[in-house]
Amino acid sequence: MIGSDFNITIIGERINPGFKSTKGLFDSSDIAGIQALAVKQAQAGARYLNVNVGARAMTEPQFMAEVICAIQDVVHLPLSFDFPSRSVQDLCLKTYDVAKAGGSLPIVNSITEHRWDLMELAKSFRFKVVLMASERMENGAARSNKTADEIHATAHRCVLRLKHDHGMALSDIFIDVSVSAIVADTEGLNRATVDAIRRIGADPELKGVHMMGGLSNIGQQLPAKAVDGCDLKHALECAFLTLTVPHGFDTVLGTPWRVYAPLPEDNHVLNVYRDFLEQRGSNAIRAVRKLYRT
Fold this sequence. Notes:
Layout (H helix, E strand, L loop, with lengths): L8 E7 L4 H8 L3 H13 L4 E4 L4 H4 L1 H14 L4 E4 L3 H10 L11 E5 L16 E5 L2 E4 L2 E4 L3 H19 L6 E4 L12 H14 L7 E5 L17 H13 L4 E6 L13 H10 L3 H9 L5
Parallel strand pairs: 1-2, 1-10, 2-3, 3-4, 4-5, 5-8, 8-9, 9-10
Antiparallel strand pairs: 6-7
Helix pairs in contact: 2-4, 4-5, 6-7, 9-10
């Protein structure tokens, strides 16, 4: 669910063993329960459903195929397949029924410069992609991107490669800028992400791409309530969106029934988050504490 002032797409994240209740469904092979979870997300406004069954995708590929078919029997949304393995993605794409999704293409989630072999699948299938801009290839090795320049440069380079080498439309590319937890962010990773979104949004060669991230990371290990009594983690998610949606961040991997809406300028969490973005080291930790301590 989204607030009336945010025009964002929600990719439902709940079909994932990272959620305890969902893991229980997978452990018991409760297909009806998985279908009910898919329906719940669709009814809450999800535009895509992310599908990740964990290790069983490798050890029991028939279970992976069964889950995809079962979801498509009850929900007619396009699916996002969240696996780094080319063989698993191949199975997912073979199983996926485009007609049941109203003709919409699935999403391969996700490719990086060091996992570019996934694009070999484009020889046999049509799909959209989630591109991780948090990593780059340097001297033959994968490196983490920690600055806005690195994130933007990786996104720019990879998007043009997808466009020119694979004929992919920019509207079929979702750049995942990776949203970090603020609790221990003393290196300015959140600031780098926010600045990178502004740069990507202003890059004329990237006009038309989507920018996305998993917002649930941002409030990890923080108390439930802010100083003003609001839901702290949810308020932080909305603060991030308030600063980034105007620059082109338009897709959230998240829980569809959470209400995302812009925060007013005088909102406590928004203003502390803004201050936090300007800090480094111990000053960043002190800024975070202002969210929940008087």
